[in-house]
């Protein structure tokens, strides 16, 4: 068997998330269909993690073991020819034997995308949360800085999930303003792991600070509470993008 | 009567162009419906020019005269609440009495957007022409420079149109590479007027140079020929964006 690592980008708008569900369109099912068409194999496609309904990816990583001897580039082109236009395999490379995309990941980078303008977004309308009220980006940045380090992020975990620990290490948490009129506000959070809905909870909490309802240091109280009710609401799925997953070389 | 100037952005993918056509979805018809819903008027909405099926705009300008006394911002918000999500009114301002969006325009800026990568575009798939073969952007830039000035652009006019003159002045013609991996190649052309399909013909001709089929100085021959058959093919509609229309103050 050959072990491969696929980098996959998708527009999550039309999907019930990454993970296979009966009678729902999922990214995993679409990729499995394309894989079957190219290799005639019913492969197990394992992603770095699930993404929820409506969440996007530019750098989701998928591991697969295969008997196919097709060269990387032929596989990539073949899969893309079979996939719908909202899913693209951007890279196919060799992976170490036994590669597991979920368990072997070292860290992940997510971006939460906001369109901050009185005017709703056009080209980005599927990819950015529209917030018409002007956000204080410096205050959001100050609040985000409190997230960096090893913390208990229980306040940012949607209840119902079962994890042995809610402690994670955030390497970087930044808020940057871009676009021709400063209308793009991008929150980037990089860490060694994420709890369920953690980035959407962080984004919703930072927006509370950005709109002036809370001060930046409120983030310290939210973290200390270890209670989901202490944080802001979850930001909507459509603004969330899984940007990159990093593995050991 | 009050004269107003609307700036309108749209994703042209779902439309048979700007101009009203029976039994076809058009941007003009969608805007007229929204206008009627807000003002109860059957207004004449005059754009700076038609855009073809599939062509986009971020800065189309539309003139209208109205008896409505609604403030600019109320009109803008009301129209956007009624419009589908692929059309947005970005600005409403006063216009001089008798304002005519077509005849009064001084110059226009178009951008033709290419996605130049072996991998097809994802987020930009409705807005960029995918060309997998690596383009020589410097050669394209050298060819584009020949367009600047007052020239007869008959070689870039799709036959069938009736114009008194095919002479136009191009103020700027640039080719720039952007995006994280240099995959975005943007052609910008600014001029005092454009012939039918002129920017798509220019883009298709520049791509012939970019892929090495022709040298940059071929552009001089194409211009001199004054014959549509001398130029490259029209680039597809989906990459074309009307960026800005400038009027006298």
From TrEMBL, chains A, B:
Residues 8-101, 143-247 form the Pseudouridine synthase I TruA alpha/beta domain. InterPro entries: PsdUridine_synth_cat_dom_sf, PsdUridine_synth_TruA, PsdUridine_synth_TruA_a/b_dom, PsdUridine_synth_TruA_C, TruA/RsuA/RluB/E/F_N. One of its GO terms (molecular function) is RNA binding. Gene3D superfamilies: Pseudouridine synthase I, catalytic domain, C-terminal subdomain, Pseudouridine synthase I, catalytic domain, N-terminal subdomain. Keywords: Isomerase, tRNA processing. The active site is at 52 (nucleophile). Substrate binds at residue 110. Formation of pseudouridine at positions 38, 39 and 40 in the anticodon stem and loop of transfer RNAs. Homodimer. Belongs to the tRNA pseudouridine synthase TruA family. PANTHER family: PSEUDOURIDYLATE SYNTHASE, TRNA PSEUDOURIDINE SYNTHASE-LIKE 1. This is tRNA pseudouridine synthase A. The lineage of its organism: Bacteria, Pseudomonadati, Planctomycetota, Planctomycetia, Pirellulales. The gene is truA.
């Amino acid at each position: 068997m050959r072990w491969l690592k696929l980098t996959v980008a998708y527009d999550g708008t039309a999907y019930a998330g990454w993970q296979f569900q009966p009678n729902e369109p999922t990214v995993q099912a679409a990729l499995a269909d394309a894989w079957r068409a190219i290799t005639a194999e019913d492969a197990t496609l394992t992603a770095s993690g699930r993404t929820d309904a409506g969440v996007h990816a530019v750098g989701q990583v998928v591991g697969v073991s295969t008997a196919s001897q097709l060269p990387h580039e032929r596989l990539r082109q073949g899969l893309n020819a079979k996939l719908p236009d909202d899913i693209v395999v951007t890279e196919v490379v060799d992976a170490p034997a036994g590669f597991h995309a979920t368990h072997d990941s070292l860290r992940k980078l997510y971006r939460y995308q906001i369109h901050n303008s009185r005017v709703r977004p056009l080209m980005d309308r599927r990819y950015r949360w529209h917030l018409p009220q002007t956000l204080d980006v410096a205050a959001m940045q100050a609040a985000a800085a409190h997230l960096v380090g090893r913390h208990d992020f229980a306040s940012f975990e949607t209840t119902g999930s079962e994890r042995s620990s809610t402690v994670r290490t955030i390497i970087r948490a930044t808020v940057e303003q871009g676009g021709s009129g400063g209308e793009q506000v991008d929150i980037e959070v990089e860490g060694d792991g994420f709890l369920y809905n953690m980035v959407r909870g962080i984004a919703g909490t930072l927006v509370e600070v950005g709109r002036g309802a809370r001060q930046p240091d409120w983030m310290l109280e939210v973290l200390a509470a270890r209670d989901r009710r202490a944080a802001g609401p979850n930001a909507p799925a459509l603004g969330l993008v899984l940007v990159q997953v990093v593995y050991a070389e």
